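Quick one, probably user error.
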């Protein structure tokens, strides 16, 4: 006869039983290691029932034979049972509801063993509930992994298609551009003909830029963009980029206002990608700013946007007084566009956000229709001696793309 502590009839046994279930549940919720939990459950069921061995099987439907997921007993062998098990009595405990059977716990007990007592059955029932949840999580994890692999394959196929078609189109458009240039050398063209030639050249150049952007976007999505971190002086970088735009801003009646502290830390990142992001943001601000207004460029140090983020970030803000955006999330989608005097934004903002995430940061937008917009590039403030390697940046990229 088992004691209260062994069969769970007393207060001590009940507490131990609840502690055991609580520990399994916390592990399942916190770590999500379903196979390890199932192994623990199998061992606990075997110990509670004095079984020679225990299988936990998974089934995809009631009409399909179970597939062994984990086993416990007989020297830890998973697929081979010795002659004792071959002659053992089998007890099957269904996992899941009747219309949603996840699998079974199969007990192999000696043929003449006494029946399992009620309290032990209650404990096994509790463990079966945990096993059902673990099987469900394992099934979902398997489905997610298969879906992720399929999505990756589709994205890679898309990249190859876009790259191939893009190269072909760029080659054909390059030839068309050369013919347009030849026409432009003709000496007896009317003003209208010259205007048409110029518009044709602009259209061809615009299509080539869109193709390049589309190929780059696909390269980011498939992880085919190489990151080369180096030391970057943020104040010097911002001043240089603003200086490059200064002339074009002055000719259309705009001006820059800068608030960039000179003591910002040197960060470790890919300067070419940061420059491309900032070029996109400044060009976008110039395009949508009303004549006579100003564009503000700021930079400072901020903590992460989430409490769980221990990093500090160097933030670079570009603020304009344009029309604003109705949906601050959609603007980063590839298909979104803001129209003003017939202009379109293309893929540049989608590329900019993906690049920011590739660098371990983020690109955010605060906007108010009719007042203006503020784009903020967040880059981690990482000391050079602990700067992330390319592998680390690649891992963060993959995590972002998975969403």
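Nope, works fine. Designed sequence:
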């Amino acid at each position: 006869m088992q004691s209260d502590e062994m069969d769970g009839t007393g207060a001590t046994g009940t507490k131990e039983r609840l502690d055991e279930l609580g520990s399994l549940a916390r592990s399942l919720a916190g770590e999500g290691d379903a196979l390890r939990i199932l192994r623990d459950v199998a061992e606990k069921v075997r110990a509670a029932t004095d079984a020679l061995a225990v299988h936990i099987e998974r089934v995809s439907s009631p009409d399909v034979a179970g597939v062994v997921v984990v086993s416990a007993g007989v020297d830890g062998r998973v697929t081979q049972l010795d002659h004792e098990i071959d002659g053992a009595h089998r007890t099957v405990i269904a996992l899941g509801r009747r219309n949603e059977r996840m699998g079974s716990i199969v007990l192999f007990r000696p043929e003449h063993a006494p029946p399992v007592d009620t309290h032990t059955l209650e404990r096994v029932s509790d463990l079966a509930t945990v096993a059902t949840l673990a099987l469900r999580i394992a099934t979902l994890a398997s489905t997610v992994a298969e879906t992720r692999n399929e999505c990756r394959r589709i994205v890679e196929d898309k990249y190859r298609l876009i790259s191939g078609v893009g190269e072909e189109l760029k080659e054909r458009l390059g030839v068309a551009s050369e013919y347009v240039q030849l026409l432009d050398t003709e000496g007896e063209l009317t003003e209208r003909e010259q205007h048409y030639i110029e518009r044709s050249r602009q259209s061809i150049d615009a299509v080539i830029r869109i193709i390049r952007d589309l190929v780059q976007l696909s390269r980011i999505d498939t992880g085919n963009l190489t990151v080369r971190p180096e030391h970057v002086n943020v104040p010097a970088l911002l001043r240089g980029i603003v200086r490059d735009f200064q002339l074009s801003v002055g000719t259309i009646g705009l001006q820059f206002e800068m608030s960039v502290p000179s003591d910002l830390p040197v960060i470790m990142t890919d300067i070419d990608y940061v420059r491309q992001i900032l070029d996109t943001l400044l060009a976008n601000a110039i395009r949508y700013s009303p004549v006579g207004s100003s564009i503000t460029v700021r930079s400072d140090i901020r903590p992460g946007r989430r409490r769980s983020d221990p990093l500090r970030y160097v933030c670079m803000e570009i603020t304009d007084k344009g029309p604003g955006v109705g949906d601050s999330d959609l603007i980063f989608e590839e298909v979104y566009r803001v129209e003003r005097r017939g202009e379109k934004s293309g893929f540049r903002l989608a590329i900019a956000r993906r690049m920011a995430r590739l660098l371990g940061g983020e690109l955010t937008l605060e906007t108010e229709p009719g007042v203006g917009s503020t784009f903020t590039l967040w880059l981690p403030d990482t000391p050079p001696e602990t700067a992330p390697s390319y592998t680390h940046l690649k891992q963060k990229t993959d995590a972002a793309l998975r969403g």
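The CA atoms of residues 69 and 196 lie 70 Å apart.
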